[in-house]
Amino acid sequence: VVNKIGRTSGWTQGEVVATCVHTNVFGSNITQLCQTFVSAGVAGGDSGSPVFVINGRDRVTLIGILWGGSGSSLYVFSPLKQIQDELGAFTATAKK
User: Fold this and answer.
1) Is 66 helix (H, G, I), strand (E, B) or coil?
2) Helices and strands, number each (H, E), in the chain
3) Less packed terminus of the chain by CB within 10 Å, N or C?
């Protein structure tokens, strides 16, 4: 089960239904390699949302960034590894 917090649809969670799928970006000739699909609520405007897993009461791990969806109940995200391979490593910290 993974979670995301979208600007439009808010916090939703759902099950990963497919991993490492090469998928086309609608309306373009771009193919995103090795993407992950999740069965969970999504709406227009949610692109860029963090996708994460909860590792206990106060800990989460970022696993990717949402970039697309199909209807209102399936979204696709780029796994963090693919983002890091493309852009380089990074670190993030949260402040309370």
Assistant:
1) strand
2) 1, 6
3) C
Is residue 55 a contact partner of residue 40, using CB atoms and an 8 Å limit? no
Question: Could you tell me the end-to-end alpha-carbon distance of the chain, in angstroms, rounded to an integer?
Answer: 25
Contact at 8 Å (CB) between 53 and 61?
yes
pLDDT in tens, 35-88: 999 999 999 999 999 999 999 888 999 999 999 998 899 999 999 999 999 899
Residue 32: burial class (beta carbons within 10 Å; 0-12, 13-18, 19+)? middle
What token pair was written down for 50?
Answer: 């963090």
Structure tokens at 9: 């649809």
Query: Whose structure tokens read 């939703």?
Result: 12
